[in-house]
């Protein structure tokens, strides 16, 4: 069982002899999440809970051991495992929901994870049918974190074998994909690279999957509908981008597209594991409601909640609106 857990959480920890000397987190994983992952692995091997936990909770070690057994199983089943403090907190709260409130909150505090009252709510799940105004929908391949341009724009790829895509692939792209496969089989990599460039110019590319399979995929640039995140050079622009990366990296997305914007991007609602991404960006204070283009009242409500709680960009005094910032730079002011 230890080997299976090692495989599952290998990205979330580096070995450490004590809880106090926390393992170093890889990029995108907080120290608190790494510490919890480390202690779960330690429990899997030794059946021992971390020293010092008893100072934060009311239950004795026997009860604590039962928590770690449950958390170990929940962590193993999570796909992917938690990477952010919010994701780890939700896993703990959901797994230990029948236990004493003081114990759950104490366990979260022990790892420096946000308590229930600090977590943004998740109220919107993916609809069972396309919302009004949707032109088409699709599911993406796992998202490359480098494809996130900023807090409201992301590049995704869609498998062309899907029903919608299969009938609209240009003939020259199909032919280039076939010829590229032949060129690679003959180890003519120069020709294969040239054929890949032809496909890329047409908005397609051959993607290698983790299982070694190659598939032809179509590229879409997605503009998240109804929100406007700070630009990269603005205060909180980097943080907004990082928050979006944490939510979508390595995951498949469900996207409902309403149309294209003036830059050729597909404007859509994005759902990740059933969670509405725009809602989370607004609730976490990572974006503004873009009311000039989307008047949905729930978007204004989620922004107002983040403002009131001083989350994210709302913790800074007088944050500048992204659309005003862009206008000033276009006008050279």
Automatic annotation (TrEMBL):
Coiled-coil regions listed: none
One Gene Ontology term of the molecular function aspect: ATP binding
N-terminal signal peptide: none
Domain of life: Eukaryota
Biased composition (Basic and acidic residues): 321-333
Keyword Nuclease: yes
A GO cellular component entry from the record: cytoplasm
Residue ranges of every copy of the TNase-like domain listed in the record: 148-316
UniProt GO BP: tRNA aminoacylation for protein translation
Protein's recorded name: TNase-like domain-containing protein
Lineage: Eukaryota, Viridiplantae, Streptophyta, Embryophyta, Tracheophyta
């Amino acid at each position: 069982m230890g080997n299976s857990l090692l495989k599952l959480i290998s990205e979330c920890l580096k070995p450490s002899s004590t809880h106090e000397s926390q393992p170093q987190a890889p990029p995108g994983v907080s120290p608190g999440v790494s510490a919890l992952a480390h202690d779960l692995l330690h429990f899997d091997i030794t059946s021992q809970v971390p020293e010092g936990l008893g100072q934060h909770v009311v239950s004795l070690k026997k009860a604590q051991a039962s928590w770690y057994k449950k958390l170990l199983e929940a962590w193993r089943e999570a796909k992917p495992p938690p990477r952010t403090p919010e994701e780890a907190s939700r896993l703990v709260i959901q797994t230990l929901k029948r236990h004493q409130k003081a114990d759950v909150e104490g366990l979260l505090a022990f790892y420096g994870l946000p308590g229930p009252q600090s977590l943004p709510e998740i109220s919107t799940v993916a609809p069972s049918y396309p919302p009004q105004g949707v032109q088409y929908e699709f599911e993406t391949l796992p998202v490359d974190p480098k494809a996130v341009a900023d807090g409201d724009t992301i590049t995704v790829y869609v498998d062309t074998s899907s029903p919608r895509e299969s009938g609209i692939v240009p003939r020259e792209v199909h032919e280039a994909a076939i010829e590229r496969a032949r060129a690679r089989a003959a180890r003519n990599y120069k020709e294969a690279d040239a054929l890949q460039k032809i496909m890329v110019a047409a908005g397609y590319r051959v993607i290698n999957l983790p299982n070694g399979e190659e598939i032809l995929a179509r590229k879409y640039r997605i503009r998240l509908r109804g929100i406007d995140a700070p630009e990269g050079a603005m205060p909180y622009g980097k943080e907004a981008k990082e928050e979006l990366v944490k939510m979508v990296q390595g995951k498949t997305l469900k996207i409902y597209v309403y149309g294209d914007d003036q830059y050729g991007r597909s404007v859509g609602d994005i759902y990740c594991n059933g969670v509405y991404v725009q809602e989370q960006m607004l609730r976490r204070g990572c974006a503004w409601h873009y009311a000039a283009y989307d008047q949905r009242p729930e978007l204004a409500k989620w922004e107002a909640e983040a403002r009131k709680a001083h989350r994210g960009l709302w913790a800074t005094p007088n944050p500048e609106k992204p659309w005003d910032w862009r206008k000033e730079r276009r006008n050279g002011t």
